[in-house]
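pipeline stage [seq->struct] | target=Acetolactate synthase small subunit | organism=Maritimibacter fusiformis | residues=187
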Amino acid sequence: MAALNIKKGSTRKSAYELRDPNAEIYERHTLAVLVDNEAGVLARVIGLFSGRGYNIESLTVAEVDHTGHMSRITIVTTGTPAVIEQIKAQLGRIVPVHEVHDLTVEGASVERELALCKVSGTGDKRVEALRLADIFRANVVDSTLESFVFEITGTPEKIDAFTDLMRPLGLVESARTGVAALSRGAQ
């Protein structure tokens, strides 16, 4: 196994960014999976991904029908078009799965994510953090004399941009919910 040498001061890349650029094209897809809300279902769905080496970039799960005991799993994953089709087919064969929708190919959809970001700083950095938060429509949900906790919602790209700008201003930590997505329109 090859070791990855990272020099001090260099930026670390995710292992998923080390793919061969000449290989097949990887696509990002958002899948909405309607399942029975019962013990072990999420483990079976996740087991499908881990057992075959598929990556999950984002995962959210919540009960969406209390009377019908149904939950919705929203998964953001990447892969070649063939791998994405294989994932959808394999998800559809899991017994407690009722529906699998690929929101990326089924038409327009809306994606949102929530993040909490703790930024520590004083003086000009504190003022700049508040200014940028206002531009990004982030809300201050906690404040001390040395730090803020911002709440921001939006697309994953918006949250990435916000955290990238907050990093030099004293970003201490962040927590993200993962993507929630729905298809647009009446259906």
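stage status: PASS
auto-comment: The longest strand covers residues 109-120. The CA atoms of residues 41 and 96 lie 7 Å apart.
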